[in-house]
Automatic annotation (TrEMBL):
GO biological process assignments: inositol metabolic process; phosphatidylinositol phosphate biosynthetic process; signal transduction
Residue span of region Disordered: 279-317
EC number: 3.1.3.25
UniProt protein name: Inositol-1-monophosphatase
Molecular-function annotations in GO: inositol monophosphate 1-phosphatase activity; metal ion binding
Lineage of origin: Bacteria, Pseudomonadati, Pseudomonadota, Betaproteobacteria, Burkholderiales
Protein species of origin: Alicycliphilus denitrificans (strain DSM 14773 / CIP 107495 / K601)
Amino acid sequence: MSSNLHPMLNVAIKAARAAGAIINRAALDVEAVRISQKQINDFVTEVDQGAEQAIIETLLTAYPGHGILAEESGSQHGSKHSEYVWIIDPLDGTTNFIHGFPVYCVSIALAVKGKVEHAVVYDPTRNDLFTATRGRGAFLNDRRIRVSKRTRLGDCLISTGFPFRPGDNFKQYMAMMAELMPRTAGLRRPGAAALDLAYVAAGYCDGFFEAGLSIWDVAAGGLLVTEAGGLVGNFTGEADYLEQRECLAGAPRIYGQLVGLLGKYSKFASAGEKASVRQAMADAPDAAADGQAPAADATTHPDSAAEDTQTRPGAAP
């Protein structure tokens, strides 16, 4: 651990590495890992639970008066009334892990009076450690990182997460992907939202969007993005996204273009925008039958003036 880092961030790093060691040991024989299902396509393993316990023990040993909000155990541990709350996802990408697909991570954030101040996202398969402290920048293995400099959506790689739970709006997600696929260099679905956000911070991806996420999926990654010079919010560009179950992030110029394309799919969109989306989805089978991709109009094509779209007031600083 570095003596130059904030003491609380150093403790979070220690906790993340302890969890990562448990995950790496289990990955050597993943078929022996006991798996249970929280709901259809939503899994939890003994590794999630063991990693979470290691994180909580490390954090509360150092800061016994702090609160805990963890994916598997909720707020059972720590102080219920502390202004300091650790937000933990012990294994983001569990489905990848149980298949031996090496894209998953540990995510730990510390919120103080409701604002995320410290963040760690640790990829144990690559030993990649992403860290951020508010106002001090974002880092990957002690190297400063910045979001990408691309400004044309047509040059960009965008990451997302596909819907997979009962009740998810599959048809709307297909419409969102249809908006983006013809307008970007590629759309990717790695399978771990916290790592997706870390990759936006590092400039590996130019943007990210996903609905249905919980606060532990986005708390740490969101701070990484903003400290790396990017923007993060909900689909309409509003900054208060942590508990809204939709997240959009990117380099500033790309973020603005993504808001222009995806804002109408937000649950916070206007009634008129929602009606137009419903109509477009109702017409979608006809377009698919004709083998036609949605036309890019003058306001949304990557070569158009949409490159200069700015984020709406209230977007994340």
